[in-house]
Amino acid sequence: MRSYRLEGSGTEPLMLRDTAQPEPRPHEIVVRVRATSLNRRDTMILNGTYPLPPRQGVVPLSDGAGDIVAIGDTVTRFAVGDRVTGSYFARWIDGRIHAGLIDQLGCTLDGMSRRTMGGALARSSRLA
Questions:
Q1: For a tag site, which of 43, 49, 71, 104 has the least CB within 10 Å?
Q2: In degrees, to the nearest 5, what angle opens at C-alpha 99 toward C-alphas 96 and 104?
Q3: Judging by beta carbons within 10 Å of its beta carbon (0-12, 13-18, 19+), is residue 48 exposed, middle or buried?
């Protein structure tokens, strides 16, 4: 599988890399990405003006949607074939946000600029 990685600031450090196809762990889902969009937040991250510095080598883009192609053994909220979208704060399910939940798609967590993504995307939302 191929994905873009941000290895610096600006658009020149966007590098196309080969990566392994994700396999879900017990509490994770794997999503085939069908659509992405570039928004102001993403351009701020690329330009180095976003308040939270991106992780070196992160997959960019926070907005995207797709369908679930695999689920872990303990996943109960989703099923293969469900259409989902991600969320900036993938680890924030409810309640007040705190520093332990601040990780964001396309910044400190790998984002949507790839064909298939896997992980514990707690804030994925089912689409109608």
A1: 49
A2: 95
A3: exposed
Say how many residues make up the chain. 128
Q: What is the value of pTM for the model shown? A: 0.84
pLDDT for res 122:
47
Q: Give the integer Cα–Cα distance in Å for 101 and 92.
A: 6
User: What sign does the dihedral 26-27-33-38 (CA atoms) show?
Assistant: negative
Question: Among residues 103, 112, 116, 119, which one has the least CA distance to residue 5?
Answer: 112
CB-side neighbour CA atoms (13 Å) of 128: 0
Model confidence at 61: pLDDT above 90:
yes
The strand pair at 63-71 and 83-85 is best described as antiparallel
> Which backbone phi and psi does 16 adopt, to 5 degrees?
-85, 125
